[in-house]
């Protein structure tokens, strides 16, 4: 492995700047995460992208926000702008459980310490920077700001809050993946310096620097940078309000009218998933939050460039061997693509990365794998060849013109779009090329797999054959003993609200998984993920989930309570009480008692939970489910083969010619508004 010097990382201190011969820097990034110089860590990516464009960039990871703010002052002011990147995870999800309890560790901090970042670091860091350097532009990025760009529900404060620009005092948000925007903003500001903009600020040595007047003149009022959010007085909105702008209900209206907030969200999600989006404007107080449309999806060359930069792939030496849990999880993994077209109602991936898949080239992927094989502690096993959803690599619409007109949030719900190419050939080619590299013993798939894509009956027989080959290879060569999949629930009604496929498909996939394991002489496990307390879910639904998963011989491990996070359909339904697309009322378990009453059904097999479960089932009038859960007289063996083909009563479900069950718990309600392209 290459012997790295301290200057191979972006500087984090004045001493490291001096080692590079720098007196000042162009951009300073304040990060809520430890500094890991790896393409999976956002601050490192933005820093390397700007560095490749010739800019001097420094990173201040996890600054101390107490006392005299010395961490915020130690590098001085930048020539162009401050960036605030609070972390790879939403800080509140990172810090607290769904029950608002402090997590045992912070996965993005050295030794998992959870006292190295504040709550809402975006707001805390920005306010400190504006207090110390009121004339320097502060630009927000990362998932925390991205998902709070407009009126949003804050689960931890139990209220709707305006755009995070209002609370933070920052000057701009870059939402989504920010590589293109940071370069364009920096280039315009650098050109303003070179052209001698009338509003420039000058240091004592005569160095020209950007102040707020220049930033407003050149950026917020001069160039409409895609994928950015700014606040304006009405008369200052670039170009004025035009008929093509999408005007949302005002923030103050949303505080009084939950249906107005739900309607706002539907428009926000639709625009987030369109190829050609409208500009969004929301009145907030006496001002207007303006969201410029995003850039088109990155090209393969652009995403390759982002991943091929000279990352050390290591934590900064300042941590001196301390364990950073998130890094340990991904150090031997490779991300193949960005984006996800699943559109799960509780997930923020498409809101941040978009639904259009952007694939890395095989050459870029193999280059990264070769770098991993040179790491001294690599033993030959890649932990993950994946992405937001592991098996979406290479997938896109067959007719791209149709995709450009579409605003469906999901390409696979309520059914797989006939325009979607579900061919796994390109992904198989990646697996084969990686496995053929010297130094690779096995490559595993640690990301979640969409089994509905594997089971889809395409009109092209070749694609069906390839997908069957992919399924077999996945199970026999790329599972490290346990394969993670996410059915999330068993209730058809709840799954419809989640935008997840029928639980029947999970049963079909499990049958295939078990059969292939038997044929290959393997003893692997399938690990399903489930969620309790999702909007629409009742205690009765959870009790039925317990019965069905018991019949499938599962004792569930990977479970969680629904956590309302900004900018998801599920959160809007949870917070407003209405589904954003139908405006139908939706029940949600909100009190600690209601949430715990649902969660306990995951653990029906624990003796300490059984009396409470029996009492709850008596209370809701479903003692019959208690008999099914705790009946010790019925043998379990009957269900071990094709168990998912049985209903709650143990009856075998009818099957059509395809072998798919015709049983439906609830008829699917068609929603013309959602299906319209």
Automatic annotation (TrEMBL):
- Where is each Radical SAM core domain found? 326-606
Q: Where is this region: Disordered?
A: 645-677
Q: Where is the composition biased (Basic residues)?
A: 660-677
List all Basic and acidic residues biased stretches.
Answer: 645-658
Organism whose genome encodes this protein: Paraprevotella xylaniphila YIT 11841
Task: Enumerate the residues binding [4Fe-4S] cluster.
Answer: 340, 344, 347
GO MF assignments: 4 iron, 4 sulfur cluster binding; catalytic activity; iron ion binding
Cofactor remark from the record: Binds 1 [4Fe-4S] cluster. The cluster is coordinated with 3 cysteines and an exchangeable S-adenosyl-L-methionine.
Family indicated by similarity: Belongs to the UPF0313 family.
Pfam families in the cross-refs: DUF3362, Radical_SAM_N
Highest taxon listed in the record's lineage: Bacteria
Q: Which UniProt keywords apply?
A: 4Fe-4S, Iron, Iron-sulfur, Metal-binding, S-adenosyl-L-methionine
The name on file for this protein is Uncharacterized radical SAM protein YgiQ
List, separated by semicolons, the cofactors it needs: [4Fe-4S] cluster
